């Protein structure tokens, strides 16, 4: 993936866990990520807010104060894998006149609807270089009144904007919700046009397990797969994946629970002696 030599294709998806008290990353976050680290594996960190007004959940990490940035630097100094921080961006809270401005510049046409993301990407690329910037897009999301009328066209345009940056690190996309076909839950697999349109490393996510992940990588549908819930509950997920051994079950009730340990760093490791 760009200048990073990855040792496998299993990526940790971004997972908001609401354990950064006061919006400051805590030592237990370093433990959480190091538990899931493998040599040259890619971990995408949880959504990180750029301002106090950009938060969607309580106690999510921020990056708008010195204290927040310093604790983040501390995490980076630990013997770490590649962690990519996922920034949560939102335009400033709007007043009535600002609303009109935002509509005119950021609403309506295809170009306008992509403008905010494009401006942010351009600014970050300018600061740190395209080969350090990746993006996660959820074209088919329908969350809190946030959806697009034509995601295929919108996100193809968006990918074209990413391609303008040579060596853009990755484009990560989330599948639509799984659907039931012949009584079985199935992943819709609709990301191929975006994958074909994008010039660099592509990461898919959404409902994948070992079998489906292997299949789509072999088929050339994606380069890497990001796993959310399975990786959350299996600290040594890439190892279990490699050995094809049973997985711990995730406990949904603990996803956003704010305990520093329970449901966060206390999922059991694979007992090696059971796999020999
Ligand atoms: C506890 C939890 C927190 C999540 N937080 C985020 C988030 O902050 N941002 C995001 O884009 N996706 C988030 N997701 C979605 C995951 O990154 C992933 O796309 C989703 O879980 C589907 O993948 P999976 O089927 O492998 O779990 C979250 C999912 C879970 C279960």
Summarize this entry quickly.
This protein is α/β, with parallel strands linked by helices and 276 residues long. The protein contains nine helices and nine strands.
Describe this structure in words.
The protein is of the alpha/beta class and 276 residues long. The protein folds into two domains: 159 residues, TIM Barrel, CATH 3.20.20.70; 101 residues, no CATH class. Strands 1-9-8-5-4 form a five-stranded parallel β-sheet. Helix 5 links the parallel strand 4 and strand 5. Helix 4 runs parallel beside helix 5. The longest helix has 19 residues. The radius of gyration is 19 Å and the shape is globular. The relative contact order is 0.14. About 4% of the residues have low confidence. The chain binds flavin mononucleotide (FMN). Flavin mononucleotide binds next to strand 2 and helix 8. One of its GO terms (biological process) is oxylipin biosynthetic process. It comes from Triticum aestivum. Its cofactor is FMN. It holds the Pfam family Oxidored_FMN. One of its GO terms (molecular function) is FMN binding.
